[in-house]
Amino acid sequence: MEVTNRYITIRTHINHGEPNESHFELKTAAFGLSVELGSNDVIVKNLYESIDPYQINRMKSYSPSQKAINFAEGIALGEIDAYGVGRIAASGNPKFEKDDLVAGLITWGEYSMIKDGNMLNKLDPLGFPLTYHVGILGFSGLTAYGGFFEVCKPKKGEKVFVSAASGSVGNLVGQYAKLFGCYVVGCAGSKKKVELLKEQLGFDEAFNYKEEKDLKSTLKRGEMLEVAVSNMNTFGRVAVCGIISEYTDEKRAVPDMLDVVYKRITIRGFLAADYMNTHADFMSTTCDYLRTAKIKALEDITPGVESIPSAFIGLFHGDNVGKKIVKIANE
Amino acid sequence: MEVTNRYITIRTHINHGEPNESHFELKTAAFGLSVELGSNDVIVKNLYESIDPYQINRMKSYSPSQKAINFAEGIALGEIDAYGVGRIAASGNPKFEKDDLVAGLITWGEYSMIKDGNMLNKLDPLGFPLTYHVGILGFSGLTAYGGFFEVCKPKKGEKVFVSAASGSVGNLVGQYAKLFGCYVVGCAGSKKKVELLKEQLGFDEAFNYKEEKDLKSTLKRGEMLEVAVSNMNTFGRVAVCGIISEYTDEKRAVPDMLDVVYKRITIRGFLAADYMNTHADFMSTTCDYLRTAKIKALEDITPGVESIPSAFIGLFHGDNVGKKIVKIANE
C-alpha cells in the first residue's frame, strides 16, 4: 500500500543567524507502507514531534555537536530526524508489531522509514497523554531532572535561579525545585510568561528580563549567564543544558572567572543522555507528581506537519510557552 | 627591647592595570620586641614570605574577594599581610613560646605584631627547608593537590593540560599528574620555562604560548581558557584557582558554552582553603614524594624585605620560575 507522505527538508545549512522559512521546504512524495522482505526496518506513522532548539546546531555545515561527540550528528541536507512518538504502520523487525506505539528518532514528516528500527523503543503511555512522552516524560523532562538533581545536587532551602523558565526544560526545573523545597526564581521574556510562572507553576519569584530595570544594562541577550554568575552565592552550581542565544549569534556569554574562583562556582555542561541511569527514578517521580497533580505539563502544541518550520523558528523568538510539540496526526 | 622594622606599605589602591613600584613604599619604624602585659599577642621575626598574585585583588578599593566571601579581605592602605614563615620573638600567648617556628599570616616586613596570635600555627619543619613550608608544603602545594585530586578527580591515563605550568601551583599540578599516571602537557611563557618543564619536571609535552604558531592567533593573553576548553575531551574538568591575566586587565576569558554543553565540560572555581580536609593526605603524600626525590620543589627566592614589591610586580610579567618567595632574614 502506498500513501502520500508530506515531510520537511532542509534546503541550506544555517551557519549564521536565526532559522527562517526559506531554510525549509515542505515536500510531498509517494511512500510505501511496507518494508523490504527480510529487512529489520519499520515504518512509523508519526503522531507527535518534539521541537527542540539544539537541532539548529545539527543544521550547520560545521556542527558543534559533530565536532564534540557522536551524540547528535549533523543533518545532511534533506530529511530531518527528531524525537517523537508514533505508531508502527509496518514492521520487519521482531521487536515491533503493527500498531505498536513507539518513541524515539522519527522524521519531520507524516511517515518515517526507520532502518533496522534503530533508536526506537516501544512506548507504554502509562495512562498519560502521548504528548507527555514527547515532553515532560521525554528528554525535556529527563534534562530537567538530571540537570537539577544530578548536576546541581540541590539541598533543601537553597535558592534556585532558572533562565528560560517558561521553556520546555526550565519550567520543569522550577517545578522540581519547588517540590524539593528550594526557593525558586525564574526569568522569562514576557509579562504573560512571568505571570504563568508565579501563578500557575508556583515559582516564588519571576521577572521579565526584557523589562527588568535594574538589570537592563546587563541583561541583554546572551548575557544571562554573566548576570547569574555575578549574583550567585558561594559554592553555587550552574547546570548548562543549552545556550540558545549562542546557537544563532556569535556573541558569547562571559561569566566572570574571578567570581567563579572566589565563590567556588561550578559551571557544568550536560546532556540528558548522560543521565539515563536515573531514568527509572525520573519516571517514577514524575509520574507520581503527575498523578497527584503536583506538577504541570506545560505544552504548546501546533497541528500539522506543515507547521514544523514555524514551530522551530518560533523557538528562537521565544514564541513557545512550555514544551513545543507539533501534532502530525490523530492517534 | 626595640628594633628598627622595615616594612612595605601600599600607597594607593590598584584598581586598574598591573602593579608598579609607585604603588608601594618601604617604610622604617621603631618596633618594640615585647607584647603588652596580659595580651595574647605575639611578635614574629619574619623569615620567608609567600608572594602571590591573588593579593592584587585585595589591593583594589572594590575587592572581588570582599564581594564574594570572607576568606581574604581587602587590604586597608598601609601594611600588607601575607602568608609566610617566621620565628616567635615575643609571646603573650600560651600557644607560642619565644623561638617557636610559626607559619601563617604575617606582614610584608621584617617583624609582625600578630593580634592574639590569630591565623598563626606552630610549624614543625619535618626535616625540610623552611621555604618548602611557604610553597610546596604550603598553600601552593595544597592548591595543586586539592585542585588536581579533589576538583579534577583524575583517572590514570587521562590527559592533563596545565596553564602557567612553571608557576607555583602549575608545576606541582604537572608533577602530581605525572606521578599519578597521566599524560601531561604544560604551557609557559618562555623557552627556558618550557625546557624546564620537559627536562626537569617530567612533563610529556610543553609549549611556549607566546611562540606557538598554530595557536598564535588565539593564544593571546587571557584566552588560554578558551583554547583549553575548545581542545578538551568530553567530560573534561577545568579547575580554576586563579586567573592572573584578569586580575589586571578588563579582558575576560570567553570559553565556548556550546563546547561546555556538548563535551559536558565542568569548569570549577576553588580555593585551597576548601580542601583543608585533605591536608593530612596532602602532607603525607607530598613529604613522601620529597623524601624519595620523586617531586621537585621549584623555588624562586629573592633576598630582603625591600625586594618584595619587585618580586610581586614580577609575577604579572612571568618573571618567576616556580614559587616566588622573599627571604627576609637568616633562620
Automatic annotation (TrEMBL), chains A, B:
Pfam family, one: ADH_N_2
Residue ranges constituting the Enoyl reductase (ER) domain according to the UniProt record: 17-326
UniProtKB keywords: Oxidoreductase
PANTHER family: OS06G0602900 PROTEIN, PROSTAGLANDIN REDUCTASE
Oxidoreductase recorded as keyword: yes
GO terms assigned for molecular function: oxidoreductase activity, acting on the CH-CH group of donors, NAD or NADP as acceptor
InterPro entries: ADH-like_C, ADH_N_2, ER, GroES-like_sf, MDR_fam, NAD(P)-bd_dom_sf
Coiled coil (residue ranges): none
Matches recorded under SUPFAM superfamilies: GroES-like, NAD(P)-binding Rossmann-fold domains
Full protein name: Enoyl reductase (ER) domain-containing protein
Organism: Carya illinoinensis (Pecan)
